[in-house]
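Posting for a labmate who doesn't have an account.
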Amino acid sequence: MKPVTLKQIAEELNISVTTVSKALKDYPDVSKKTKGLVKELAKTLNYKPNTFAVNLRTKESKTIGLIIPVIVHHFFSNVIKGIVSQAEKKGYLVIILQSNESYELEKKQIDLLLSQRVDGILISLANGTANFNHINNVIAQEKPLVMFDKIAKIVKCSKVIIDDRKAAYTATLHLINIGCKRIAHFRGALLPQNSIDRFLGYKKALLDNGLPYDPSLVYICECGERSFEEGKKNAKQLLIDHNDVDGIFINTDLVAIGAMTEFNSQGVKIPDDINIVGFSNWFMSSVISPSLTTINQPGYKMGKAAFKQLYKEIKATKNKKIITPKTITLETELIKRDSTKDN
């Protein structure tokens, strides 16, 4: 069955197509009686507006693109919820794409979203992204783009972040305050800015408190889909390399849970033998045994803030206003649980 058109409704009621269109949009110059007849018939015939035609007229697709490194991750799933909750309020659909931490796939996805004429793009960069020409190309086309979480400082666009250095400093300082002297760090990949900043926060906390920085205590995790296995692998290697480590600050909770699993299997007691602080406050962090002390990263709030900023820039672009890039920094907090000793 073909879709019902405005013309069919107009012919049925013996009025003009323009009057039908105005009635459906509640224009004041159409009588109440006519509006009622038009809306009732439209409902009976199951009329659906031609959104493609509307989008052509308004030059809006009412869709935005969202590119994230991984979907099956507690933090990013909360970000998605925050974005979608706000997008629905404004009548936007969200096209969600997963880059799998791949720079090449991320580039293709940017091209795809541009070809779909989305109104704006939200992106958290892949670990493998070191060149930002594809991002700068979006901005050059005056397409609103907002980065969140994993960002590039040199790209001139709005960003929604946390203070990763401060959060990592707080996590490491907690280990120092409970008496840890040899503190390791399971860091993320070398490229992402948040991974760099968490490492720098860890290092600064050590040096500020009279503890030496030992690069052999830093282990790299790519923190993709194999985060849990990487946590186990690095924990196993740590026990071989260093038997005197009494604290670890770990870049993400999933890596931390993998590490804790390995320590438990080898009879290393947490927190008696080793204290652990994670990052993100994933749901599993509160239900594993022992529960994980971690940094709470506000994913839902980040998603909401990212969409709100993108929406402002979409409207500004439509009204031909100049966009001034803005950086929004959200607060984090340390959640103390059983994987670290009491002060």
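Reply:
Got it, the structure tokens are right above this. The two ends are 71 Å apart (CA to CA).
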